[in-house]
Amino acid sequence: MTGRLQGKAAIVVGAGQTPGDTMGNGRAISLLFGREGARVLCVDRVGERAQETARIITDAGGVAAPFCADICDPAQVQALVAEAVRAFGEVNILVNVVGVGGDGDGPAHLASEAAFDHILSVNLKGMWRTIREATPVMRQTPGGAIVNISSLASVAGANMVAYEVSKAAVNRLTLSVASANARHGLRCNAILPGLMDTPMALQGVTKESGQSMAEARAARSRRVPLNGRMGTAWDTAHAALFLASDEAAFITGALLPVDGGMSARVG
Fold first, then answer.
1. Would the pTM count as exceeding 0.85?
2. Is 244 helix (H, G, I), strand (E, B) or coil?
3. Residue 149: which domain range?
4. In the chain, how many domains are there?
5. Domain check: are 86 and 186 in the same one?
6. How many CA atoms does the CB half-sphere of 81 hold within 13 Å?
7. Does 149 map to a domain?
8. Is residue 209 one of the residues assigned to a domain?
9. At what angle do helices 127-138 and 74-88 cross, to 10 degrees?
């Protein structure tokens, strides 16, 4: 442990993960933050997944607590922020990981209204809710940091209009929050992951394409310029660690691609 977040209290929303043989972004971020000295409230819609993440942190000697909440419910979002304050006395870091795709998404002329509404409700409005509730608390302590997980799909894509629009809106939300809170010393940045080897991503691809897991991994890796391989949740986690730490004290309103060079091809 190098203590880059020593003494910080963090909320990671989406700290559990879809079951699978690789690590998800939310769990990797939570574990890395715990190793670096943060006290972590591990929030997930599935309570058992939040509990497992918190257990891994505490078993390694860190400080963590689980909390079950659905960010589509304003009362539950209020409750998760209140629990962080109760448990830790403050909130220094908020990481918004939760994001969904969905059956029924697709090109604009094919996407269903139900899918569009659901994806925007979770990916954008849910994130806005957590920021809205945490901001007054975070302003009370200097040096706070909000890190939002967006996506390369916010600037590139053509086949998932609801997901792409939701993540483009997350980018704009990030810039708006950064501007509104700069004079309070509260920073807000976003990470734009590209093709990542996470359970949620791979399971979605195999379901849509009919490929095996091995075939999907190979096909996705061939598309990545840097070393011809997908990223992992740890790549996302290390970027989040930097943006949440005091090392990034002069960085706000940044949209950081973590994508193996894929965004360099855009435009």
1. yes
2. helix
3. 9-194+233-254
4. 2
5. yes
6. 22
7. yes
8. yes
9. 30
Output phi, psi for 177, to 5 deg.
-65, -40
Q: Which residue out of 15, 163, 193, 260 is catalytically annotated?
A: 163
CA atoms within 13 A on the CB side of 3: 2
Per the CB < 8 A criterion, the answer to whether 71 and 100 are in contact is no
pLDDT in tens, the chain (267 residues): 489 999 999 999 999 988 988 999 999 999 999 999 999 999 999 999 999 999 999 999 999 999 999 999 999 999 999 999 999 999 999 999 999 998 899 999 999 999 999 999 999 999 999 999 999 999 999 999 999 999 999 999 889 999 999 999 999 999 999 999 999 999 999 999 999 999 888 887 777 778 888 888 999 999 999 999 999 999 999 999 999 999 999 999 999 999 999 999 886
User: Cα–Cα distance between 97 and 20 in angstroms, integer?
Assistant: 17
Whether residue 199 sits in one domain with residue 178: no
- What strands, in cross-sheet order, belong to the sheet with 9-13? 63-68, 39-44, 9-13, 93-96, 145-149, 187-193, 255-258
163 catalytic residue (yes or no): yes
CA pair distance 209, 110, nearest whole angstrom: 17
42 touches 53 (CB < 8 A): yes
Burial of 7 (0-12, 13-18, 19+ CB in 10 A): exposed
Using DSSP's 3-state secondary structure scheme, residue 146 falls into: strand
**Cα separation, 267 vs 265, whole angstroms:** 6
